[in-house]
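Feature request, filed as a ticket because there's no other form

It would be nice if the structure record came with a short human-readable summary line next to the tokens. Right now we just get the raw output. Example of a typical job, pasted below so the devs can see what we mean:
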Amino acid sequence: MVVHRGRWSLEDRLERGLRELPFDVPAGTASVTVELSFDGGVIDLGCHGPGGFRGWSGGARRAYTVAADWATPGYLPGEPEPGTWHVWLGLHRVPPGGVPYEVTVTTSASPVPRPDVPPPPPRPDRPPRRDLPAPAGLRWLAGDLHSHTVHSDGTLTVHELACLAASQGLDFLAVTDHNTVSHHAELPAAAAHAGVALVPGQEVTTDLGHANVFGDTGWVDFRRPSADWAAFAAARGGLMSINHPLSGDCAWRRPLPAAARPRFVEIWHSSWWDRRWGAPLAWTDLWLPCGAVPLGGSDFHDPAQHKTLGEPTTWVLAEDEDGVLDALAAGRTSVSAGRDAPVLLRVEDDLIADGADGAVLVRPDGRRAAVRGDRVRFPADGPGMYRLESHENEVLALCG
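Raw output as currently delivered:
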């Protein structure tokens, strides 16, 4: 057993926000258990072994176990390799008086019993899919690009989340737990059971901003500069999106050179509760004047929260569910308030407003036109972000 104890000060946090506490793992170890206690503030928790990243649970847990055949959600199972490991402590919030803490590390040569895992819920009934106009061979798929499970600070298992997505009529869902990829191994089975495509993702999370990386890229090192996140994702066939750029203390404040800025921005986040507020649109125009690809995400964590999975809904134009990432990469996206809400679609050289009678079409140059009819076609002027607004200037839909 190894015990680290002390008091983190505000000055400690300002000097270096991520601390690494070493401990040795002898050969023949079957499991490693770490327990954290502290009083006041917020301390995040993670783990790194000689072979690299072994897990992250942030502020959602105060203990974890890593064993050969299982691990606490957020952590990667596998033989605990001998050598020097490190407990990661993220000093997320430290008050002026400091935070006393204690970390206890226990290694065991005997296997630790695996906790009971709840069985998956029954496969849900799916609402009828919405009939939307699309070019031959393609269709509009409804999804949500931001969600969490018990592998970070969510309350649902991967199976439970997948079944909820299917019951909401979604065709795909990106599962984006914070700073970990431990949930990726569970996605294929949960997707097949629920009948919904699950896109592997991770929310790269820091005090100064969050970004989603979509695709099976492997773990993104959140300790690195943001430009490295984008380059890592691109080199492995993934995509990076800036998350909720104006959302409270999670707003994007990280330096990122203009040349490295991703095209993808989560303009429509569940925190944009008053969509007459134009700041997200203005921020996006300044962030990428040549035009961003608009995305939406509910940031769903818990059915008891105010957030609803699929609100907003991100639509992608693809051949089938296997083509979600390719459609995102091509910028074939639209965002609406929900699966059955008014939507603005780009179909070849036209824009189609569906279910939006009485709305207003706003072009990238600011010109406006009234929508009269349930399905109205307008010529597109070229690249840029188009939107539908209500007569009160509330954003109803976005289209890349």
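Something like this underneath would help us a lot:
The mean pLDDT is 96.
The chain has two domains: 2-108, 139-341.
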